[in-house]
Amino acid sequence: MARDIGPACKLCRREGEKLFLKGERCFTPKCAFETRAYPPGEHGRSGQGRGERASDYSRQLRAKQKARRMYGILERQFRRYFGLALRRRGMTGLNLLQTLELRLDNVIFRMGLAENRAQARQMVAHGHFTVNGRRTTIPSMLLRPGDRIALREASRSRTLFKELPDFAEKRQCAMWLDRDVKNISGRVLRLPERAEIDGNLSEQLIVEYYSR
Questions:
Q1: Which of 6, 101, 164, 208 has the most crowded CB, counting CB atoms within 10 A?
Q2: Whole-angstrom distance, CA of residue 109 vs CA of residue 69
Q3: CB-side neighbour CA atoms (13 Å) of 109
Q4: What is the CATH classification number for the domain harbouring 64?
Q5: Could you give the 3-state DSSP secondary structure of residue 88?
Q6: What is the pLDDT of residues 131-171, one digit of tens each?
Q7: Does the pTM of the predicted model rise above 0.85?
Q8: Which domain holds residue 27?
């Protein structure tokens, strides 16, 4: 299971905006982006090259990197998702975003059952959730409308999941998902619409990057 284990705050600083990779911490003064809102590296603080106009390739690359880092995906897998989106009918950019949203770890995050995607990924990897009644440990599993997600009975006695209903009540669930907070379960109702996906993602630039 490949994943990026480097400092998450450096990713936000490199993209020049908060990607909210650490959940609630990103809303506090402890967030590194609040005190070091410049790119990491030797020339980050000096601002070398900031005044230059970004090339088309640079804008395309940054759009792709931002999406990849938000969803916690490495390049090889992200490219595979683009291939899947390209083969589906409809707009390739929207198909790509819908594919990313239907990952199991993202669905659990969108249901409000995890503070961030990294935590959701860890929950799935440790086998705490079932999909359609079957235990799974694959965070990248792609769901479809009608699929049901639920917490395993064997995991309900753990302290984290005893407190999870109270935590989830304070968090909003995506409109394209159905959630049962009391039973820590949910269902995929339909594919997400573009307006229900992060608006700061530029799917057209991603398409242009891979179409070079």
A1: 101
A2: 15
A3: 25
A4: 1.10.1050.10
A5: coil
A6: 999 999 999 999 999 999 999 999 999 999 999 999 999 99
A7: no
A8: 8-97+199-210
